[in-house]
Amino acid sequence: MGRDKHTLLRKFHQARWDEQIICEMSIPGERGILVPKVEKEIAAEIGDAFPTIPENLRRKTPPALPEINQVRVLRHFLRLSQETMGADMTIDVSEGTCTMKYSPKVHEQLTRNPGLRDVHPLQDEDTLQGILEIYFKLEEFLTEISGLDYFSFQPGGGAQAVYTNACIVRAYHEARNDDKRSEIITTLFSHPCDAASPATAGYKIITLMPDKNGYPDLEAMKAALSERTAGVFITNPEDTGIYNPRIAEYVRAAHKVGALCAYDQANANGMLGITRAKEAGFDLCHFNIHKTFSSPHACMGHSTGAIGVRQELGKFLPIPRVVSNGKHYALEYDRPETIGRVRCFFGNAPTVLRAYAWILQHGADGLREVAECSVLNNNYLLKKLSEIPGVVIQYAKGKRRLEQVRYSWNKLKQDTGVGTEDVMRRMADFGMQHYWMSHPPWVVPEPFTLEPCESYSKDDLDEYIAVLRQISKEAYEDPEFVKNAPHNSVVHRVPIPSIDEPERIVVTWRQYQRKKQARVK
Amino acid sequence: MKTLGLIVNPVAGMGGKVGLKGSDGSEILRMARKLGATPEATQKAIQALQALAKIKDQLQLITYPHAMGEDACRAAGLAHQVLGSIRGERTTPKDTERAAKQLLEKKIDLLLFAGGDGTARNICTAVGSQLISLGIPAGVKIHSAVYTVTPREAGEVAKMFLQGHLTNLREAEVMDIDEDAYRQGILSAKLYGYLRVPIENHYVQQMKAGGILAEAQVLAGIAGDIIDSMNESNVFIIGPGTTTRTIMEKLGLENTLLGVDVVCNKDLVARDVSERQLTQLITGRQAKIVLSVIGGQGYILGRGNQQVSSKVVRQVRKENIVVVATKEKLASLEGRPLLVDTGDETLNEEFNGYIRVTTGFQDYVIYKVGHH
Prior knowledge:
The complex is a heterodimer of chains A (about 525) and B (about 375). Chain A is of the alpha/beta class. Chain A is about 35% helix and about 10% strand. In chain B, the strands form 3 sheets. Chain B has a 9-stranded mixed β-sheet, with helices on both faces. In chain B, a hairpin with a 2-residue loop joins strand 15 and strand 16 (about 365-370). The interface of A and B includes residues 188 and 501 of A.
């Protein structure tokens, strides 16, 4: 009983509740809470409160909320949670580039502190000193980690951080009265937001393809650079996990034509305490607080893209900035050259708190250890997976990777017909999260991208390896079995290809009712 | 129940093993047989059919008599219906065309054909993109993108398509190679047409509407970018292909898929022009040439757009050449450079280096260019 001692494989089966949609469980009149009636004295004092609600905000009909008691609500959502697979439940090495490290649960107690939870950003600054101090100190930590001079935590995520940096680049060139700078250069293996965010900011985008070693083509970059280049937005290491050792050369080439360089450091886990944006010559950078610095990803929920800039660019940062005279913290709005706001108030405070707490728990030497562990874990995984039949590792043969690797099942596909999407579905049968494949376009065929982080033990990695090895074995022995996976999951017949016709997709109950009616017609 | 049509060109591949380049023409065939060549196409077709054995109960197979498909079906152990008739052993392109037309009438779901470029051209002539088709490689020279790499792969792709697991369709180029020139060591290729092919691209996730919709949007973006650069005076030479076609569609202009059209001030100036007409139209004018990437080999000049000759290119100048392609297309080159073959070696060499490719609206890639 329990996980097999030799194979490390589990006889896993996901719970399957065949649960209804909560709206279908509604019973008219059923209640979970009875709202207390207003006390006589208050009613006498206030009178009828309804007229205080503006006419245009008053409902004409009651909300169509499901009517259900507490017990059924609790049971319903617990059941649904059993049918999902999250980072707390599984060895989540699967989400390459997402850095699915352990989010310390003690942080959740910290974020419930009334000094964070029960305040409003428009309160008097004197009553927000705690939060402002944390903002100030986290900024100090990140300036030390990156070598850059100022940080802002207003952007709500990585893509917004890159967008903000693009806006700062634009402000910089405008201040120089240079109106020719219309282009941003990026690379194919950088995160797609390094292209999309500057495009949203109005730039033309030039993408560099990887050379045969998997690095961005430096000669191509030199061909792309011109007086029209506003900036180079680049991730390093890129999605492949290969660190570009000549990164400073790329930066120099860009600076030579007067362009700025923005470092997408969303994947900083393998570099903390080892290398910095500053020494590579970068003018701007950003970190994903919800990745490297442990804040939960929360299903694309509250996150923070922390942007960092060199001294000279500080004046363009979004407002407000947190400033201090050593004793007191304040919010500074009067900054004439600011690009303005990119988000309301000053960003996601609980996320900033978690990052601050996480760094304190590690200390400088702890951060370095995080980087070393991630790199070690990743290269251990790389070595073991390269021994699995069917796995191909493109680029940088014989070289080490940093904290993640993009693998390929191309050989497995050619030998057995089983491809990356089939393996992905079969993984769920062992209690593993579907791995992430790749950003489009898939330059690496049949891809999968894995990132172990520092949180997973050798035993965790060995189990993950065992699962992939087993699936490879199954592919060679009985490919149809793998192709028809998953077998032990919530759903057994996953539509292939996935459904993506608009008329067959619904995300709300109302949409469902409307489209179902339409189909019946 | 799905219907699959099969046409085998029994003479395809005859020339190859005995060192002759191609098997068109009865004289070459006679020489090939004399040299001991045996029909390979049937063997290749059998390999493809074997991959379909697993779904034979959901399949209705229709084919042509004897060596044009019936033999292969029988050898692969698949139940089949035989259409039409052929005269004796010696089959001709006309038989292939007739077979394709008859299968079209049967409204088959997919047509598998075993052959080479010549066979692909016959299918193209007969039914064009009215049928979804796929080539089992059996010919000597395969320059057309309608073929899979191996016969077995053709069977696998066909199986997945018929099972509904594969939904991505592509318009794949059918090339017309000058055989006599080829035998003298000169490769002269023209774009002959397109066939609609299910491609199992392991470089792309299989998406039903999404994949096709997304590509349509990217192509519209590319077209928009090109159109934005059009003014009252510059002349745009629009090369052949499906990527450039979107530009013409967006402008509401008639388009020559396989030929070169000329546009000025967003109006059609000339259709399907020759090299001579081109040189006349651009004399004394500011001109741009818009080129797509032809076929799997990545040619931007010299395959299918010979009208854009070295003379025209010199007149327009390299910096006024705009290459258009999706990022997926570039990625499928697997790092190989774009190729240029204008016939003028010096000109070819001038292209060595990098070129800007328009991959979307205000979206570009700097890509390497080389030459064979």
